[in-house]
Amino acid sequence: PSTATLVSATNVPSSAVVTTITTTNSGRLTFAMSQLPGNTSATITIELKPTRTGSFVNTITTSANGFTPVIRELPATVSQVKTDLALTVAGLPSVAIANDYVTYTASVKNNGPGTASNVTVTSILPTNTTLIAVSPTGHHTITNGTITFSIGTLTNGQTTQFSVTTSVSAGTNAFSSSVKSGDTSDSNVANDAATTTINVTPYRPAE
Description:
By secondary structure, this protein is mostly beta strands. It is built from no helices and 18 strands. It is 0% helix and 63% strand.
């Protein structure tokens, strides 16, 4: 159907050696089998990803030379998958001294019931801070003081977290973070973001 995209298509022969050629053309998937001897079978598995909610129909036609084609229609209903992503931030002090290192830990939990995919966390650093370290490494990008963490998939009840260390300057430092899923609807957006403000005083050497 036009309301789904193809994820994978595989053929598993049992007692027969079956040559399979897979082609796609305007939503049509064709398996060309060179042979299928009597009393043998082959299993074809097709995985689809729905692109919208509603009802759609998979139409499957099996045909061979000298045989009447067999047509089967497989209706399916796709409902909206919803989940609740919750973001919490901990570790930031309320006050600090200029040039101090401050570290905060952002935790993301999927409260369910569905699985959230294509999950990302965006963390915006204050303009008067210097990024020192990010943990874990290798899962983020940094653009103009904005850190984007690519989390991927979170199943129901799954939690992940990351830590950021910065050096702060005098003034008001507001750290903002938010989470979203690119493919799944969030049933509670109220817990998707968190902002913590630190008042940083200038450094004064002891007299």
